[in-house]
Each structure stands twice: as C-alpha cells, then as structure tokens.
Amino acid sequence: MKLTGLVPVLKCQSVSQSLDFYKNTLQFVEIRTRKGPTELEWVYLKSGNTYLMLELTDEPLNSQQSAQNPPIRLYFYTDDIKSFHQYMTARQYKITDIEKTPYGLQQCTFYDPDGHKIEIGQTTDGS
Description:
Elements: E1 9-12, H1 15-24, E2 29-35, E3 40-47, E4 50-56, E5 73-77, H2 81-90, E6 99-100, E7 105-111, E8 117-123
Parallel strand pairs: 1-4, 5-8
Antiparallel strand pairs: 2-3, 3-4, 6-7, 7-8
C-alpha cells in the first residue's frame, strides 16, 4: 500500500470569494463544485499537478488564526519567483519581499481572503 496524493482542504467563510481568488489570481481551474441551498459549499481545483479543495464553514476563522502561527499554510513552488512577485504586486496584493532561505529557496508570502498563509518558493540551485 502507498499513498498516491495529497489534496489540502481549506475552510472558507465564502467559497465563492475564495474561488475567485484561486482562479483569477493563482490560475487554478475548477474541476468540480457543489452548491448548497443558498451558496457554493465546496469546490475542487487544479493548477498543473497541484490540487486544492475549498469548503464552506460557518465557524469563525479569525479566532482560530494568527498571522504569526496560522493553523495551516500552503507552500507552492514556481519556476519564476520574480515574475510571480511582480504579478502579485501589480495586482496590489500585500506580499513580502523575496527572501533567500538557508535551505536553498527564494520565497515570498501572502494571505488568501480567509487568512490562510501562502508561501511561494523557487529553488536557487536549479533543482
């Protein structure tokens, strides 16, 4: 037996708002959705070989999260960190400067509409 994949499920106050962010900002594509009686409840997304699910919650997210230690953070890889940073800056997203890490990556950080921490990284050694 072996594990064949991982799909994070993010709790969202508004799946529609988060869907807009992940589709229009991070270039994810909808694979499947589930609409409830009044609003979108769940969505399954893909970008390249990266998958993500968004799920509606009625629990307050801000009381569970802090900017210093969020309950979940996503780490995505890119092939061009500088272009990604310019893209996000041009769209007026609050994003940290690109920094070099001691473990061989360049990375920057920002937050999605529900406060989930997102880090974007690129290897600096070509691997």
